[in-house]
Amino acid sequence: MAGKIKKYFAGGNTARGFHNLFDSNLEGLDRLFILKGGPGTGKSSLMKKVGQNWVERGYDVEYLHCSSDSSSIDGVIIRELKVGIVDGTAPHVIEPKAPGAVEEYINLGEAWDAKALAAKKTDIENLALRVSEAFEKAYATFKEALEIHDDWEKIYINSMDFQKADQLTNKFIVSFFGKMKLNKRPDVRHRFLGAATPIGAVDFVPNLTEEIPKRYFIKGRPGSGKSTMLKKLAEAAEARGVDVEVYHCGFDPNSLDMLIFRELGIAIFDSTAPHEYFPSRDGDEIIDMYEILIEPGTDEIFADVISKISAKYKNKMAEATEYLAGAKKLRDELEAIYIAAMDFTIVNEIQNKIEDEINELTGV
What is the pLDDT of residues 36-81, one digit of tens each? Predict the structure, then answer.
């Protein structure tokens, strides 16, 4: 029987710049292949092919999707074999902890025509600079959007019953964990629920929660305590030895959007825009933070102010997304230069060598 592919982001284009959570997900691997090479050198395709091969052999595989192009991947992990392959080029440069013993660099530059690229040196440098500038503009604009979002949150924070918030959190801690205390070190992985991409917000919530029998959909407003409750639940799980997947907000990595306790069969996540979902099967339950914790009538009292803030925020988010789209368009031009200079038969040979080494390492 074929294995399954789990999809998530380990890097994000955020209001605090590019944010990297790769280390958390690569921890515990015995072998890590780090791919080097320019854009368009076939890194994502190579990783997808290796991943698909192992899925067909019955192994579950993790795809670390790229926040700058969600159809591409930045890494593939075969957790059961303790093997991974990652794109080790900027902005997610991977620093080896045990070079040679664990990490191995793979240079896809072996497959390019250096003379052809040298002839395009000026174009490559200009495009690379313009891509970098577009990303910096996107991050600066996301930062402006976050400052607007903070003003939005203050309205609800000032109308919140914090005692009820603590009671609600404690209720879930008891419900989820009871008197549980597992005699093991918990496996804690930090990822992103979704990502700001050139086509807007993208997430993989349905994929990540498809095998989870009990899902809690948190509804509410900005500043209604969703992230704070998730942080406390994550701390409680870790203290009890419970494994937890911690999914950060792709807009503000300091906030949390989802927790998955796979060994307990529980997922709890912020189910408001831009990752809004509704119960669709038995075991799904809504937690309405506005209804439980916020002073009734807050929406109505501050309707005009909220409307203006919401419009400003959406405009800034749309502007930042346009910068990401512009960066992708420029990067596509850069990739085309490299693709024209590549001998992909050599890339296929490199892929086969990686596959052979994984087979030897695992004895599979």
Answer: 999 999 999 999 999 999 999 999 999 999 999 999 999 999 999 9
Output the DSSP codes for 295-319.
Answer: PTTHHHHTHHHHHHHHHHHHHHHHH
**What is d(CA 287, CA 348) in angstroms, rounded to the nearest whole number?**
49
Spatial neighbors of 142 by CB under 8 A, at least 6 apart, are 13, 14, 15, 196, 251, 316, 317, 320
Is 358:85 a contact under the CB 8 Å cutoff? no
Please report where in the chains the tokens 């600066």 appear, as a residue: 140
Q: What's residue 131's pLDDT?
A: 97
Gap between the Cα atoms of 307 and 266, Å rounded: 35
**Element housing 226 (H / E):** helix 226-239
The span from the first CA to the last CA of the chain, in angstroms, equals 16
- How far apart CA 325 and CA 327 sit, in angstroms, is 5
CA–CA dist 358, 364 (Å, integer): 8
**CA 36/CA 6 separation, integer angstroms:** 24
Q: Which of 160, 164, 263, 266 is nearest to 214 (CA)?
A: 266
200: which DSSP letter? E
User: Can you spell out the DSSP letters for 173-212?
Assistant: HHHHHTT---SS---EEEEESEEEETTEEEE-HHHHHTT-
129: three-class secondary structure by DSSP: helix
Q: Are 158 and 336 in contact (CB under 8 A)?
A: no
Q: Does the model's pTM come out above 0.85?
A: yes
CA distances from 335 to 42, 179, 322 (A): 10, 55, 20
What are the pLDDT digits (tens) for 163-208?
999 999 999 999 999 999 999 999 999 999 999 999 999 999 999 9
Coil/strand/helix, residue 142: helix
Q: How far apart, in whole angstroms, are the C-alpha atoms of residue 222 and residue 233?
A: 19
Using DSSP bridges, classify how beta strands 244-248 and 284-288 pair: parallel, antiparallel or unpaired: unpaired
* CA 88 to chain CA mean position, Å: 16
Locus of tokens 């990303």: 135
Q: How far apart are CA 232 and CA 24, in angstroms?
A: 19
